[in-house]
Amino acid sequence: MIEVIQGDITKIPVDAIVNAANTSLLGGGGVDGAIHRAGGPEILEDCKKIRSKQGGCPVGTAVITTAGKLPAKYVIHTVGPVWNQGKSNEEALLASAYLSSLKLAVEHEVNTIAFPNISTGIYRFPKQRAAEIAMDTVQQFLAVNAVIEKVIFVCFDGENLEIYRELLKTVR
Ligand code: ADP
C-alpha cells in the first residue's frame, strides 16, 4: 500500500524513516538536518561507527541506524545523486537509492516505511522525474515483496505533494 502525505518526516510513527543523507553521513541541511536535530546525537554516533567501518555511504546505497528520540524505530540513510543535467547516470542512481533503502528495510523486518523526496532539495533533481522514479521503484518492489506493508511518501513542499498525488492516481 502506498500513501502520500504532506508533512515533516521526523514526526511519522513508522518502523523506518528514510533520510536523504550525503556520502559523509555526518549530517547536512534539509531533511538530514531536521532528522539529526529531532532525533538527537545517537543517530550521529551510529553514523560515525558506520563511517569508521566503511568510510561513508556511496551514492545510490543505504545504511541503517537507530532513530534516537524519533517516533520511528530506525533511520535508513540513503544518498541520492546530485542532479547534473542528466549526464551522470542520475536516474539509475536515484532508483538505486530507493531500492537499497527498501532492501535494507526488509532485512530489518520493517513493515512500514516513510520516504522524503530524495534529491529534490539541495541536490536539484527535477521533481516530476524524481517522483516517477520513486513511485515506479516502490511499486515494483511492493509487487514482489510481502514484508513491507506500507510506504508513505512524505512531501514537504506543495509542489511535490501535487506531483505525488497525481502519480498515485495512476498507481491505483
Ligand atoms: P537532497 O540533498 O537529497 O536534495 P534535501 O534535504 O535538500 O535533500 O531535500 C530532499 C527533500 O526533503 C526536499 O523535497 C525537501 O523539501 C524535503 N524536506 C526538507 N525537510 C523535510 C522534513 N523535515 N520532512 C520531510 N521532507 C523534508
TrEMBL record:
Record NCBIfam families: PRK00431.1-6
Macro domain segment(s): 1-172
UniProt superkingdom: Bacteria
Listed name of the protein: Appr-1-p processing domain protein
Coiled-coil parts of chain: none
Pfam families recorded: Macro
InterPro entries, sorted: Macro_dom, Macro_dom-like
